[in-house]
Amino acid sequence: MISRIDLRGDALPEGGALRDLLPRAEFDVEAALEKVRPICEDVHHRGTAALIEYARKFDGVELEQVRVPAEALKAALEALDPAVRAALEESIRRARIVHRNQRRSEHTTQVVPGGTVTEKWVPVERVGLYAPGGRSVYPSSVVMNVVPAQEAGVESIALASPPQKEFGGLPHPTILAACALLGVDEVYAAGGAVAVAMFAYGTEDCLPVNMVTGPGNIWVAAAKRYFTGKIGIDTEAGPTEIAVLADSTADPVHVAADLISQAEHDPLAAAVLVTDSAELAAAVERELEPQVAATKHVEDRIKPALAGKQSAIVLVDSLEDGLKVVDAYGAEHLEIQTADAAAWAARVRNAGAVFVGPWAPVSLGDYCAGSNHVLPTGGCACHSSGLSVQSFLRGIHIVDYTRDALAEVTHHVVTLAEAEDLPAHGAALKARFGWKVPTQ
Question: Fewer Cβ atoms within 10 Å of its own Cβ: the N or the C terminal residue of the chain?
Fold first, then answer.
């Protein structure tokens, strides 16, 4: 059901050579980019008419309007299962606690007497958030996108999710209910690259945004790449990933369950166990069979995901080697299920989020840990972070110098300007002092 990669016996290679040995899903955003380009430009030129046509073509629905009416949001919240509402409210509460603490404050540094640099943090003015609606419905992604944007102070928030034939062309009612709970009233029935193009270019109904965030399929990732530079993006999210670093103390029942939990997202989802215990590896392999048989989405998602080239059990000689492997892999989600798990977790350099010990499974982070589940995939955790309040803030430096403070440093500025053959830069300072460099 899942393959093995045996890295025992020889010294592990470094850098890219080690990464090349590890499993990874094929996710060709560049090829998808050529297919989304004409769609994006059609939305640019035809606006709402193009959105309605693509809803008919891709989603099989006839839309009269793309924006979700306010009464539909209200009705979805009123009809929401009380237990689901309570769970969403708790997820929102915990996410606010964590994200509120991420706020950054203005700070002024006195560089020299009379010379200061102040860094202030300004929220993005308008954002477009995306909540997927393909194989599954993700109200949790609404929470994970909206809460940090709100806590950052973003004033204008719009959200898009694919229209659903089953619900008369509206996004899934649980998506709408989550929006209502969060106070987001600008919601659009638009999916994939079409939604990203709507946000980037704007239409008759939707003003253009400064930034688009949220997970999605390869078409969403390709559209984000297409618009990079025109709008800000969080990340080009690929298929979801879990890596588990475990030793002989790990419970194979837990490990198998956690691998399956991510495999049920998508046939391209990656499930990777890295362990120095051949006994644990065998026990997890035995445990996978009955657990997979007992759940849903087996043939269309879980079995293809576990059997795919992106998933494997990786055997290593030691946890030290295991740490090198998971750092090279850079998982979206990394669980540490070892003795002294906190100490090993503290040494991890590359992961979207780290889950410590047997009582912090990835599923907790997906919903109610308070952390964010919009995380870098495809090894991007080596250079990128998950979604946070910081994602929606821009740092601006405010430079304030007196005449004396400028005079004191003018000779250095002039020297550096002339060293770079940019004499007008130096002249901009000389002009303030009668075209003479102040005497030190």
Answer: C
